[in-house]
Amino acid sequence: MKSHEYNFSLRQLARAILPTLVVLAGLAGVLRAARSLGLMPTRPVTSDPHYAVLAHQSRAARSHHPAQIVLVGDSTCMADVDARALSQRLPGQPRVLNLGLLIWFDLNTYAEVLSDFASANPGQVRVVLLLVTPEKLALPRATAQGLWGEIRLNEHEPDSPAALAGAPRDWLGLKCLRENLLPRLLATPMRGNGEAAARFAFSSEIDAYQTAHDGSTLDLARFIRPQQPPKPGYTLAEDLEAESRAFRAKVPSGARLFVGLTPRALSYSPPGDRAQRLEMLTHWNRWVQADTLLTNLPAAWPDPFFASKEHLNELGQKRFTALLARELAPLLQERP
User: Fold this and answer.
1) What is the pLDDT of residues 40-66, one digit of tens each?
2) Are residues 224 and 112 in the same domain?
3) 16, 80, 93, 134: most buried by Cβ count inside 10 Å?
4) Residues 6 or more apart from 43 whose CB is under 8 A from it?
5) Number of independent structural domains in the chain
């Protein structure tokens, strides 16, 4: 038994479908033309947590903020210290802002972020705290300045030339619509199935967390023990001297520079780690010329405090922030 039966000709079918196809083709042409002419909005930071974090730091560095203490450094600076909690633990509760970036960037980029904040908030910074992992000091000159320049100017996720070269042609403009337009109107879920994606489903949530914690982040990864014993020894990168002297020159006038090294997980700590770190820190200070070296910071902590080899987890962050506050408190009460 047939409930319905439709009889129509090809001409009738064409009349029903062709208008829709023409509209879609027109929209695809408009999207492709707009992209080729540079009229399409840049791809915003929507799904990659790294770019979301960097975009937040770029905006924060150029915004008005009451911070008198500014933290700069690599990702361990961002993940290991809760700036808002640090402020609450210090005498007088001076505001603290965490402008840490990633290990990919060199000290010149860290100095640029610091200069941006000092320009937006003249005469305000009293202390600059530079925190990095020893691995940062051993890396050759970073090559991510171009990436930071794009994020700083446009606050978008740059297209990778390699990805563009291997990407299929976007004939219908769907990729352009999905990556350039829709994220401007709708919240786009973050990529991946890890702990970060579970805790922060959207990049806007990462941004909100950093705002609430004055630039600090959380590493929500699960710690993995090394399969082989860690290798001993630290060696300062050959080109670190020029970068360090340039960074020191960018510290705002009247501000004191404190420098320290962040801890690593005990399973990744080689024998004699603490002594080697202190030697490295002392040697580095010949160039960076800190007012104070934070030599009492731990070299290694138990694995349960870590999300990765060098990033503390939420519990470790709380403990390290409290320890850092105890180290800074007497220094802040000293007269410059």
Assistant:
1) 555 555 456 677 888 889 999 999 999
2) yes
3) 80
4) 156, 157, 159, 179, 180, 183
5) 2
pLDDT digits (tens, 9 = 90+) for 208-229: 899 999 999 999 888 999 888 7
Same domain, 269 and 120: yes
> What's the pTM value of the predicted model, to 2 decimals?
0.77
Does residue 6 form part of some domain?
Answer: no
Paired tokens of 247: 């960074």
